[in-house]
Specification:
single chain; alpha/beta; nine-stranded mixed sheet; 9 strands; 49% helix
């Protein structure tokens, strides 16, 4: 029988995984040890899998120790072979493509075996029956994900009963909530309050014992801690020191590494989901994540699709800040079309929140416009932006109707003053 195994592809998969642990999630749902045509490669893959599924780091040393404890180091080719694999590939970027080659070769080998079995039968009916059975076995490796409507009931019941989380802002919670499986995009111009909103949401959820992962690509760690400290100082209940201590112990993990690709963000979120049971991922901000594509619009669209896939595939609530186009400043209020550089963001988002603060007035109010809500109503909420403490609070003493009247009055005063100066 023809040998279909690609030694180079198998070595590239293992070498890529040894080069960086972040690439495990890129292949975990695609390849198994049974796909490897070389026995020692299958043994090494099982060792890597055992570490990755427990959230444990792996390298030549840890794999060698694991294999030695199970008397498998010899079957894996010894320490020298592990070292050779780790040094044999310069980059792990294409490990998914290498895995696809390995899987395709494994399926072709299975078809070769089917062909040999068919040659041994004596009748056409036996050949057809055997071929059909064997082809179904190969096809089953790819999985059949189609289901009838009735079979979706369990998913519907799980989604219905899934815990949604309140934001803590009265007017926002009256309209919507944070739900697993959804991508929420928070759009605004620079310095309006995107980062404040994301960090405050993350801290508030973590204080409620909801595990959160924050990817901050715009601010260093020291600046984020300073924001958290100022938020604690501005808490209405006082006891800033005690509040800060509780914030420091809350299940909020923050990563400030940059640059960051959507593949890396996806893999690290999956690992955090597995190790820390995170329920919410925050991204500040979307256009700073690197995606694949020939144009800027295609790259941003790839990031948007990746975040949506992360939310759906891992049942996470993903909240991503996004820049609005400069042209939005000329509008009285931002619109969905103002999301910068890609219409895909608007399409992928389950909810789109647009923040708006009018610099021409003295009110410290911030409008949160829920311009899209795939599974609920749209609407507007009014928040007070306490910039000195990096906090957003419910506007208990001012309704949206009163705010808009005051807004019109102050704008009218500006117009009159401008006319008088001419």
């Amino acid at each position: 029988m023809r040998n279909r195994t690609s030694d180079e592809a198998e070595r590239a998969v293992l070498g890529g995984l040894l080069l960086t642990n972040d690439r495990w999630d890129a292949v975990a749902d695609h390849i198994t040890s049974a796909d490897f045509g070389i026995d020692r490669h299958a043994v090494i893959f099982e060792a890597i899998k055992a570490h990755a599924e427990q959230g444990a780091p792996y390298d030549v040393v840890t794999l060698g120790d694991w294999l030695t404890q199970r008397n498998l180091l010899g079957k894996a080719g010894g320490m020298s072979y592990l070292i050779e694999l780790a040094r044999g590939i310069p980059s792990a970027a294409n490990v998914r493509s290498y895995a696809e080659i390995v899987v395709q070769r494994a399926r072709l080998s299975a078809l070769d075996r089917i062909s040999d079995e068919i040659k041994q039968v004596n009748t056409l009916d036996q050949a057809v029956a055997l071929a059909t059975e064997c082809l179904e076995r190969v096809a089953d490796r790819q999985g059949d994900r189609a289901r009838r409507v009735g079979e979706l009931r369990e998913d519907w019941e799980r989604a219905r009963d899934a815990p949604g989380w309140a934001t803590g802002w009265r007017d926002v919670d009256a309209i919507t909530q944070l739900r697993p499986g959804e991508l929420i995009v928070v759009g605004a111009r620079p310095s309006v309050g995107k980062s404040t909103l994301l960090l405050q949401l993350g801290l508030r959820l973590a204080m409620a014992r909801v595990p959160v992962q924050l990817f901050s690509l715009e601010e260093p760690a020291a600046a984020i801690y300073e924001r958290a400290r100022r938020m604690a100082e501005g808490t209405p209940r006082g006891d800033a020191e005690g509040q800060l201590e509780r914030l420091e112990q809350a299940p909020l993990w923050i990563e400030t590494s940059t640059p960051l690709t959507i593949q890396q963000l996806f893999a690290r979120s999956q690992r955090a989901r597995r190790k820390r049971k995170i329920a919410v991922v925050l991204v500040d901000y979307l256009q700073l994540v690197d995606g694949e594509g020939a144009t800027r619009e295609q790259r941003v669209a790839a990031v948007s699709r990746g975040l949506k896939s992360l939310a759906l595939g891992q049942e996470l609530c993903v909240i991503a800040a996004a820049q609005l186009n400069r042209s939005s400043e000329s509008n009285s209020r931002p619109r969905l079309a103002d999301l910068r550089e890609s219409g895909a963001i608007e399409q992928d988002a389950d909810q789109a929140w647009l923040l708006h603060a009018d610099d021409r007035i003295t009110l410290d109010a911030l409008e949160l416009i829920i311009a899209k809500n795939r599974n609920g109503p749209k609407g507007d909420a009014l928040l007070r932006h306490r910039k000195a403490h990096f906090r957003l609070e419910s506007m208990d003493d001012l309704s949206m109707c009163t705010y808009r009247k005051q807004l019109d009055q102050q704008r009218g005063g500006h117009v009159r003053a401008l006319r008088e100066s001419l």
